[in-house]
């Protein structure tokens, strides 16, 4: 999926809430929910994600990898 149109406002999505259930800061636990959130983010013309190894005790980056974030154009 590619961004529909680049937004004039540079918004960076913080992926710290993606991660396994029970991990500190994690609020979004399923791949389906994460994918839906990324779809909406991209539909608004955004394509940059902030992530770190510590988000979701490492599970945030794992989830993004399972969602093929690079193929999505993020």
UniProtKB/TrEMBL annotation:
Domain NADP-dependent oxidoreductase: start-end pairs: 11-67
Key words, A-Z: Oxidoreductase
InterPro entries named among the record's database cross-references: NAD(P)_OxRdtase_dom_sf (IPR036812), NADP_OxRdtase_dom (IPR023210)
Presence of the UniProt keyword Metal-binding in the record: no
Pfam families reported in the protein's UniProt record: Aldo_ket_red
Signal peptide segment: none
Keyword Oxidoreductase on entry: yes
Protein name, UniProt field: NADP-dependent oxidoreductase domain-containing protein
Organism: Cryomyces minteri
